Amino acid sequence: MKVPKAGELVAADLRRRIITGELSAGDPLPNEAVLMEQFGVSRPTLREGFRILESESIITVLRGAHGGARVLELDGAVAARYAGLLLQYRGTPLVDVYRARTELEVSALGMLGGRGPNGELDRLEKMVAAGADLIDDDEAFAQHDVRLHQTLVDLTGNVTLGVLAGMLFKVIEAHNAVFIAAHAAGHEGPAARAAQQACMKLVKLLRKGDVAAAQKHWRRHLEGVEKYMVGDSEATLVEVLSQRQP
């Protein structure tokens, strides 16, 4: 069993305080002298703990007279970035991400349709309607489409499912940017109009309470998106995402 280093123990304690809400986003950490006394550690050990938390994007450390450590807002993009790196490291095909997205969203529809409160469907329908004004703007519609799909999952109320979906959508969002950049302006118009129609039909099916039909329709739509965006390509994530500058 690995014995944690003192810096790791410091990081673990501060991480716990942040996650439990004892320290909130924007709060400064106590000054170094106070923390060194609390933990009984030296300044280099304390700063090692800070570096661990900085690497996890949990705190930021500002230098200078008005510097110090401050708590950051926890961001799902950090987890998504690491998930993307892991998938790239494993040579994951791009199509794998699209198929995982399909299964996740179809499952989410089952959860949403089973609950079916009108307020949630009103929110979804409003988002769908907003897409109509963006069809002629490839980038704007693509960004809106990602938000709509995330909303669809979020409406289930299942936080874990929403976080997992967010990881996949970050990868898909990056691929969208690469795909759009590789084509002439306006190329996405027909696909955007088809997506808009599919979303409108989805809302209607959910309004009717026909969950099975909604799931069947959405699976067909997402499989069509996969074919359009990926086709028969065997490209891996590392090949696709490396084309996009951070």
**What strand line-up does the widest sheet have?**
1-2
Pairing-aware structural class of the strands and helices?
mainly alpha
Might you state the CATH topology name of the largest domain? Four Helix Bundle (Hemerythrin (Met), subunit A)
**pLDDT averaged over residues:** 89
Write the layout of secondary structure elements.
Elements: H1 6-19, H2 32-39, H3 43-55, E1 59-62, E2 68-71, H4 76-89, H5 94-115, H6 118-131, H7 138-154, H8 159-181, H9 189-208, H10 211-229, H11 237-241
Antiparallel strand pairs: 1-2
Helix pairs in contact: 1-3, 4-8, 5-8, 5-10, 6-7, 6-9, 7-8, 9-10
What is this entry, summarized?
This protein is mainly α and 246 residues long.
Write structural notes for this entry.
With 246 residues, the chain is mainly α. It folds into 2 domains: 6-71, Winged helix-like DNA-binding domain superfamily/Winged helix DNA-binding domain (Arc Repressor Mutant, subunit A), CATH 1.10.10; 77-241, Up-down Bundle (Four Helix Bundle (Hemerythrin (Met), subunit A)). Helix content is 69%, strand content 3%. It has 11 helices and 2 strands, in the order H-H-H-E-E-H-H-H-H-H-H-H-H. The protein has helices at residues 6-19, 32-39, 43-55, 76-89, 94-115, 118-131, 138-154, 159-181, 189-208, 211-229, 237-241, and strands at 59-62, 68-71. It has a two-stranded antiparallel sheet. Strand 1 and strand 2 (68-71) form a beta hairpin. It is elongated and about 65 Å long. The model has no long low-confidence stretch (mean pLDDT 89).
